[in-house]
Amino acid sequence: MSRLELRGIVRRYGTVAALDGVDLTVPSGTLTAVLGPSGCGKTTLLRCVAGFERIDAGEIVVDGQVVAGPTAHTPPQRRQIVIVPQEGALFPHLSVRDNVGYGLSRAERRRGRIDEALSLVGLAGYGERMPHQMSGGQQQRVAVARALAPRPSLILLDEPFSALDAGLRAELRHDVRSALRADRATGILVTHDQGEALSTADQIAVMREGVIVQHGSPTSVYRRPADAWVATFVGDAILLPAQAEPGHRDDPAVLSTALGPVAVAGLPSGHGALTVLVRPEQVRITAPPAPQAVIATVTGDDFHGHDALVTVRLPDGTHVTARIPAPADPMATGTRVGVQVEGTGLAWRVPEPAE
Ligand code: ADP
Ligand code: MG
In sequence order, what DSSP letters do the residues of 73-133 get, joined into one string? Predict the structure, then answer.
């Protein structure tokens, strides 16, 4: 159990700042997902925390101890921090048991920590196998068991499921989450998969171009994204232009958009161009159109059984996609429907173009 604090971490490669002032706190015993697109600096961040990279500015503090800073650089082997990479972490010539026991003292082995770690990841009894006798998913489980075995201060997971297919990935991340919880481990899970971050982590740090742009619980990041970019990256977003009326006083204010009136709480003051966020599950579709609904035409229906993604063309020609829970039947292209927004949206001011 350990608490990690990152303060203003900068890491440059030549003139490129891969990390450009990262602030992040990971409370003890929790899992934080660092979510960001490819190339935003996620792996660099983990490598700095583990000590494989030196930082150019800032401070990395584990349990109150500075392990990296202007005058400190604790080498990786003395940080008790482990990284689980995307794949290929195992020694191919060692059995599962010896892989998991690699970093353990003889006393810990005798106390049965290897079997304990294998049970944590659901692989009790697999110790005598060789890595090549295991599936890709099982090999990643072994890699996680090996990382957990010495009870590190921190476990860093660098897109550890991304080489696996979707079904297996969901099962594995659930089991790895449970294993970390059962062992009260503190961890960072790096991913570019928003579904993975939302479903697995206690908190999410959204990263963009070397900076953490938002940090909070999965629900708060999803419901109150800091800007339109985060909204689009974390979940599906419908972004609509609107105008703030001068002198509006209502809260929530009701804005008119191509989807009809949208209630927005905490509208930025002043007047001018806004971007309004609505989530696809907030769009209600009625056929025949409900009174007062905006009239639209169905242009596509992606039927999934438990829900459907229905795309409609609005009167102004724009297309939006709604998520309809448990529809009775797919909606035929060309159907005239009504669309309305339920609940509240969010709005941001559109930045003035630079002069
Ligand atoms: P991510 O893991 O989010 O995909 P990385 O941390 O791997 O991103 O990379 C962040 C940025 O730093 C990228 O622009 C990448 O090209 C650059 N970078 C990473 N490692 C090096 C390196 N060893 N030398 C030069 N540039 C690097
Ligand atoms: Mg990476």
Answer: E--GGGTTEEEE-SS--S-TTS-HHHHHHTT--HHHHHTTHHHHHHHHTT-TT-TTS-GGG
